[in-house]
Amino acid sequence: MRAVALCFLLVFSCGAESAVANPHERIASSLIVIRAEGKDKTGRTLEAYGTGFIISTGGFAVSADHVKTDLMKEGVPESDIKLFARYQDVTASEQEVKEAGSGADDIIILKLNRRASGYSPVKLMCTFGESHASGPVYTSGFHNACIEYNSSKICIKSQVVYTSSSGEITSSDAIEFNRWATSLSFSGGNSGSPVYREDGTVIGVAKGTLRSGDRINYFTPITFARSRIGNLPIQSACSAVRDAVESVVRSDCIAENLASTTKRSFEIKDSVRAPGTGPQTTSRVEWKDVCYQAPNGWAIDGQVEVIRGEPNGGRGSISAVTYQDAPNSGRTTRACVTIKAWSQDQPFGAGGWQGVTLRGQIIKPVPDEQDIQVAATQCKVQR
After folding, report:
1. Average model confidence (pLDDT) for the chain?
2. Higher pLDDT, 344 or 328
3. What is the pLDDT of residue 306?
4. Which pLDDT does position 382 carry in this prediction?
5. What is the pLDDT of residue 317?
6. CA dist., res. 105 & res. 65, Å (int)
7. What is the DSSP code (8-state) at residue 49?
8. Is the separation of the CB atoms in 375 and 242 below 8 Å?
9. Model confidence pLDDT, tens digit, residues 169-214
10. Residue 231: φ, ψ to 5°
11. Which residue pairs, CB below 8 angstroms and at least 24 apart, start in 375-380?
12. Whole-number pLDDT of residue 212
């Protein structure tokens, strides 16, 4: 299997960086390793690596689209390319991920599998502009480093490792192709890494050089992807409401209060019972659909936990969870299981019973004006 030599981003660790650990610690739990794989027309399997970051507890993530499109330039048909991700750690289990959208800004949206405990999302500065261009910036991700070369100095073995770096924005007035220049040092494997402030707020997506031989590195401000991120079925910092909140005093406080008031836990319980057979010899079967329906304006966030009640004599079962999206929104609003119980298949056989508990969380993807006013009032009281 040959690794494709692509213009992927990476940020190397710096010894002087050790004194500023907090920015990277704040973002580390949201990082993912991206691997793209496919076969060209000759049947060779090619792969490429990048980095991404989580933007919702339900598993939506952002990365650089050229992690995929560079494989296409190598002759791999787009339909044959598969994308995989590892969450937080290079040693974590790899999962195949789905593409949820891409665009000319070299940003791709990915969707990871549901996870019972959810994912840890970053904070996004969706209105990033020239007024925010001063001060240090940081980045971290996963570098596909060569650890063994052959006699011809060709890499024959590589390993994915975590790296981090700091720098500054070097040009905010000569934007080229919606890219901003930076002194952050990039290398192979870190395309799609988050670029962020000291408080961990993500302001952009790592790109790399624009042309072969260039020495200037660029990142894409998250602003250019705000419309697509804002349309996702998630509680996103890029929604119009959240952008309005950023102009309010103590916006960090308001965002925190909104997060606590627009997220709730739910739990429902139900059961089904099949009576005994009596003198008849045929087993009696009963079943029931147990469903949770999110209130209007709310959506189910992440995976619903199913807690099984012990069936009577083993005569009961629970189906897998099925999820239903609201029409034209893409937001998951309903989750159901089917429970079933049956009696013994004999005269005067004992009945059956099956209980179930569904637990999970719901979010309000778009806070309303009242939510914002309450959050702002709470912040004024806390001052």
Report:
1. 79
2. 344
3. 93
4. 54
5. 92
6. 8
7. E
8. no
9. 987 544 455 678 899 987 777 899 999 998 888 988 998 777 666 7
10. -90, -5
11. 375/245, 375/253, 375/254, 375/257, 375/258, 375/261, 376/248, 376/254, 378/253, 378/257, 379/249, 379/250, 379/253, 379/254, 379/257
12. 63
| CB-based burial label for 171 (10 Å; 0-12, 13-18, 19+) | middle
Q: In which residue ranges of the chain is CATH 2.40.10.120 found?
A: 2-237
Q: Is the pLDDT of residue 2 over 50?
A: no
Planar angle of CA 337, 341, 343, nearest 5 degrees: 170
Residue carrying structure tokens 């009640």: 309
DSSP per-residue letters across 318-360? EPPPEEEEPTTT--EEEEEEEEEEE--SSTT---EEEEEEEEE
Which position has the token pair 């689209």? 65
Provide the pairing of β-strand 123-124 with 201-208.
parallel
Which tokens sit at 185? 């040092």
CB 292 within 8 A of CB 300: yes
Q: Are 219 and 204 in contact (CB under 8 A)?
A: yes
Asked whether 141 and 189 are in contact (CB, 8 A), the reply is: yes
- The string of pLDDT tens digits covering residues 290-318 is 999 999 888 888 889 999 987 767 789 99
Q: CA-CA distance, 187 to 216, in Å (whole number)? A: 12
pLDDT tier, 9 (very low <50, low <70, confident <90, very high otherwise): very low
- What Cα–Cα distance (Å) separates residue 335 from each residue in 98, 266, 294? 21, 12, 9
The two counts, helices (H) then strands (E), for the chain are 6, 21
Token code pair at residue 225: 């992807």
pLDDT for position 86: 94
Q: Which two tokens stand for residue 30?
A: 């949201």
Q: CA–CA distance from 374 to each of 264, 301, 367, 369, 382 (Å)?
A: 16, 23, 11, 9, 12
**What is the spatial distance between Cα 219 and Cα 206, in angstroms, rounded to a whole number?**
4
CATH (residue range 2-237): 2.40.10.120
What is the per-residue pLDDT for 252?
58
